[in-house]
Amino acid sequence: MLLFALLWACSDTILNEVKKPSIIVAPELLDFGHLLSGLESDTMTITISNGGSADLIVDHLELEGANYLVDTTGFVVPAGRWYQIEVGYSPETFEHNEGYIDIYLEGDEDPSESVWLNGNGDAPLINVMPADHDFGAPLLGCDVTKEIIIQNDGNVDLVITDIDIMASVPADITIDFGTLPEFPWSIPPAGRIAFFANYVPMDEDPDTTLFDISSSDPATPIYGAFTEGAAVLSNEVIQRWIQESTIIVDIVWIIDNSGSMMPFQNLLGQNMADFMIVFLSYTPDFQMAFITTDNSNFVSAPIDARAANPIDDAIAVIDSIGIGGSGWEKGLLMLEDCMISGDCTQWMRPNAKLIAIFLSDEPDHSNRTPISYINSFDALKPDAFVPFAIIGDPPQGCSGQNGWNTQAGWGYYDVVQHYASQWFSICDEDWGTQLESLAQTISVKTIFEINSEDPHVDTLRVWVNGQLVESGWSYDESTNSVVFEFEEAPEPGDTIEIGYSSWGCGEE
Prior knowledge:
The chain is built from eight helices and 33 strands. With about 500 residues, it is of the alpha+beta class. It folds into four domains: about 1-120, Immunoglobulins (Immunoglobulin-like, Sandwich); about 125-235, Immunoglobulin-like (Sandwich); about 235-240 and about 445-508, no CATH class; about 245-445, von Willebrand factor, type A domain (Rossmann fold), CATH 3.40.50.410. Helix 2 packs antiparallel against helix 3 (about 310-320) and helix 4 (about 330-340) runs parallel beside helix 6 (about 370-380). The chain is globular and about 95 Å long.
């Protein structure tokens, strides 16, 4: 009798152990390849098999990733059977979509299995440069002409069907299409078309014009670009600034970690001490963090003014970044994500300027146009966001000492230009001097931009605290700015005044 009881107990244990489900999922990745935006792909199939001897109960599925289509409700797979899940893909615009499907079994808090998703939306992507333009304050009756460029940042031909002009009355701002043909215009990927906006103010009233550009971009079928201006009767101008008295900055480095970046990361690490020595000598209150172009989380713990050896700490972070990241660099998107929902949200200080420094050997591939990220940065950090970039030289890129050919840093360049900030060439042979200049620009203002786009250089006069300054500064035509030598830069709290006159209608 005892023997029978033992056998029965063993038999019952074996039966309980055997009657368990066993999940098998195939494939591990669904790659939808490239698909024109607005279309829906043929579905692809995920097969969930039950290799056990009891029912496999799938509680639900969770989908992460935009533009994928799947039924996420649960189901039951009997022992020895299988169940198929149909997954579709429908991109909305020019974009790269990564995602995954998590499979949750009944009673589990964590997913049992995951299937990765990958797809690319093929579409044109309109980029208007500049998106908005201020003609400034030209003399009454003078003609000011500015080039407007439409660029196709997508991978399918961009078709411009019309440009509708809505101008104030009288229409002092007009468009000159030059030798361009009648609509439609077809712009290939990476191609550009330029036309001109002309401003001839006939009165002192402000003038505003909206250009509605109709195109085949599915995300922005109508792109609105503004121009504005207001005439003046006199060309005598004095501009005034007060040098900042307290330097409180939060710095985020956005580092490209794709496969081609090793030589540039090495150059940054080798010359970081040049940046930090200058920066630390002028900046009493700072925080510094690093993210990458494919991850909005901090690479490591931020560095601040309390660090025992911030120079070594910064170099160590750079050395740890590596080149295992995506070749689809999204520096603008990663910074936005960091500011909206990532590590930056609790780290950024409300009384500090936010300095963003982009380093990449390719253009930005974020999902939206640069102006949309500019608007986001302005909303998240009003009047306190300053971007810089170390990038390939626009418009063609450059070749550096390391032998690598780099692409022009469009996107990053557009953002920097919007803020009238600075970019530095990734191909420059003297990274030490370049990084010193970057640190100086962040730490103390040495560049003072002139409002007039056509100053009479010979009339430029500079005062600091009411005293005429005749040396230690120069006029930089490329930035239309008065630039102080760093050693002669005004001290915090100093008043800087720059006086000048403009050429009559831009003619000498």
